[in-house]
């Protein structure tokens, strides 16, 4: 008779065997998928950015990016909103002048270095926008945090977007302030930076010298609030209308229920760990493309972890409001699909499935999320919207409900692990029972 302890240990060993293969094969894939979101270029291409104009009668905004890059939407949505008002000098700035990777491999050439901005202004910017950066809290962000401290000491208003709040907090500039950040890491920041009064359930917090926003597209609300605060309500309303975003100028920070992980969010673990054959999507860069349009494509597909994106083009391009981007390839060879963001004219590319998500007016992310649902599944599109902090209850999403074929991969690996364990156990038992000198 098998004792209860031995039976329990047998079950434990079988469970471990079922988990071993999925963990061994899935963990490296997941790490590669996440770290690859801001993978740097492997060449030495570093073109000169488009010349910047400066109007001393206008306030100046500096959108900072670190050497390791930043989240595309955190940088490009505030940039387009602020630049589109015509009321500011708006520059992207970084410690050095080389291209920096935004989410999904969109390489941005900063307008100015920190030293270049100082030379241009002779002092601090009026508003500094701080996006989420992949190396927050690491020594590599010290040039950024030191520069932020100088700007804040000079009187700059700081606008952090998403987990850019942690970058600001790591500089010590949020101690004693109320602030918010992305829902997925808010508890982590509360433990790491206890001197900050972290707030959940709101899209932005205005605490005077610092305005902080919740996750990703909550940065749009915070940026529009900054426009209203610095320029006026009418300018904020026009800026919101220009990108198709609802904005109530007089209602204050929009409230929202605190977001938490749900069982259906396991879909991202499936894509990140077992999406070995995830499609490779080329994103065609063209002159005049809108910054929000670019961000909607790169961030949506990349944040889903269900596809890899690569910027395609013949050479550097200049966006609608003057940013310089550098493609990583001129060839569509090896791509599964090609996405052509924006409403500008695009060259015809024969031999590949091409998608034009922005042919119809509306908020740029809507059509991209719908395409993600159609080509991947609805659960993935909903997870991605949740990460972007974009409510999609009123957005029709049509496609497969769940990635069932992908779900079978860890299950099959688990069954294989159990069979191997049982086979090994049987072999050991046979050998221990075979008498010495026997066959």
UniProtKB/TrEMBL annotation:
* Protein species of origin: Cellulomonas wangsupingiae
Question: What is the official name of this protein in its record?
Answer: DJ-1/PfpI family protein
Mind telling me which InterPro entries this protein's record contains?
A: Class_I_gatase-like, DJ-1/PfpI, INH-QAR, TAT_signal
Q: Does the keyword Transmembrane helix apply?
A: yes
Q: Which residues form the signal peptide?
A: 1-33
Keyword Transmembrane helix recorded: yes
TM ranges are 411-428
Question: Keywords of this protein's UniProt record, alphabetized?
Answer: Membrane, Signal, Transmembrane, Transmembrane helix
From the record, what ranges are coiled-coil?
A: none
DJ-1/PfpI domain residues: 61-221
């Amino acid at each position: 008779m098998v004792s209860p302890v031995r039976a329990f240990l047998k079950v434990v060993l079988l469970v471990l065997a079922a988990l071993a293969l999925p963990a061994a094969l899935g963990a490296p894939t997941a790490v590669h998928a996440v770290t690859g979101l801001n993978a740097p270029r492997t060449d030495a291409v570093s073109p000169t950015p488009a010349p910047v104009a400066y109007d001393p009668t206008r306030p100046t905004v500096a959108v900072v990016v670190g050497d390791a890059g930043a989240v595309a939407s955190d940088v490009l949505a505030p940039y387009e909103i602020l630049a589109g008002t015509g009321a500011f000098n708006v520059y992207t700035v970084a410690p050095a002048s080389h291209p920096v990777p935004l989410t999904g491999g969109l390489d941005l050439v900063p307008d100015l270095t920190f030293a270049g901005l100082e030379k241009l202004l002779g002092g601090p910017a009026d508003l500094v926008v701080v996006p989420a950066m992949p190396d927050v809290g690491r020594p590599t962000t010290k040039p950024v945090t030191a520069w932020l401290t100088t700007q804040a000491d000079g009187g700059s208003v700081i606008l952090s977007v998403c987990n850019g709040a942690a970058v600001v907090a790591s500089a010590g500039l949020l101690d004693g302030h109320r602030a918010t950040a992305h829902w997925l890491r808010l508890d982590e920041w509360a433990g790491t930076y206890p001197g900050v009064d972290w707030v959940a359930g709101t899209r932005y917090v205005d605490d005077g010298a610092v305005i902080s926003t919740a996750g990703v597209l909550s940065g749009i609300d915070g940026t529009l609030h900054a426009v209203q605060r610095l320029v006026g309500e009418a300018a904020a309303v026009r800026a919101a209308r220009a990108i198709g975003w609802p904005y109530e100028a007089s209602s204050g920070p929009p409230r929202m229920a605190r977001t938490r992980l749900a069982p259906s969010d396991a879909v991202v673990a499936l894509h990140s760990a077992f999406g070995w054959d995830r499609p490779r999507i080329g994103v065609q860069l063209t002159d005049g493309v809108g910054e929000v349009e670019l961000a909607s494509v790169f961030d949506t597909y990349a944040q889903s972890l269900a596809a890899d994106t690569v910027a395609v083009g013949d050479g550097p391009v200049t966006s609608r409001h003057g940013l310089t981007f550098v493609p990583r390839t001129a060839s569509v060879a090896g791509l599964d699909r090609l996405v052509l963001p924006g409403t500008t004219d695009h060259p015809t590319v024969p031999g590949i499935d091409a998608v034009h998500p922005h042919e119809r007016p509306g908020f740029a992310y809507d059509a991209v999320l719908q395409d993600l649902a159609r080509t991947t599944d609805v659960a993935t599109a909903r997870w991605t919207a949740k990460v972007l902090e974009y409510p999609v209850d009123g957005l029709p999403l049509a496609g497969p409900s769940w990635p069932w074929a992908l779900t079978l991969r860890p299950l099959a690996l688990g069954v294989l692990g159990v069979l191997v364990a049982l086979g090994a156990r049987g072999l050991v038992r046979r050998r221990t029972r075979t008498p010495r000198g026997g066959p």
